């Protein structure tokens, strides 16, 4: 495998666009966030370099990393969250992109150690259940390979739930991660996660005793967009 910048030009460009969209959508501040794009055939992904401001980021700055976490191509140090991305690519074999932010409302639920409850049809349009919150990483695992253990924590949270149907999570005391078939889709899911978190927070603030959305409404809204007989939208696109 070569290691010149040109070897991974398209992959770097895809990851760069995803990172730019994270900033443009308002879910990252300064350097607090990252996105990656994978080439599963080659077993690599391109990820934002650590600490580089988005305003200065260029496609050639993106670092290409193997799924085992080793750097394949790039002059800069990759994101400190690289090992977490690597775990997710290994654990969720169908994904092509991962995104991570410290967006305000999603982080609030994470810091509270609470899953984001499914309270209305907006949430059910994207997920058939709560946005899960992981367990808290214990001290021993924190003192080890922290970022790898964070990925392992997320993977463990999905041992009995579908990472395809629920392409997002909040890591307790930390913040949100999302993934998708592409880097673009991973970013989209991160943005929607923040919106779900915000509306849930406002709902609970208005009515602390609110009950979860009725299951038949959850089923209707999720299935009309994602089920085998989905009829939402046109053949392509996702907006109303």
SSE inventory with pairings:
Layout: H1 9-24, E1 33-39, E2 44-47, E3 63-66, E4 71-73, H2 82-91, E5 97-101, H3 104-112, H4 121-124, H5 139-142, H6 146-157, E6 168-171, E7 175-180, H7 183-206, H8 215-226
Antiparallel strand pairs: 1-2, 1-5, 2-3, 3-4, 5-7, 6-7
CATH H-level superfamily title: Class II aldolase/adducin N-terminal domain
Supply the helix-strand structural class. Answer: alpha+beta
Adjacency order of strands in the biggest sheet? 4-3-2-1-5-7-6
Q: What is the CATH architecture descriptor?
A: 3-Layer(aba) Sandwich
Unreliable runs, pLDDT <50, ≥5 residues?
none
Taking the alpha carbons of the first and last residues, their distance comes to: 43 Å
Order of helices and strands: HEEEEHEHHHHEEHH
Rg on CA atoms, Å: 18 Å
CATH class: Alpha Beta
CATH fold field value: L-fuculose-1-phosphate Aldolase
Overall geometry comes to globular
For the record, the count of structural domains works out to 1
The helix content, as a percent range, equals: 25-40%
The total strand number stands at 7
Number of helices: 8
Relative strand content: 5-15%
Largest sheet: 7 strands, antiparallel
Mean residue pLDDT: 93
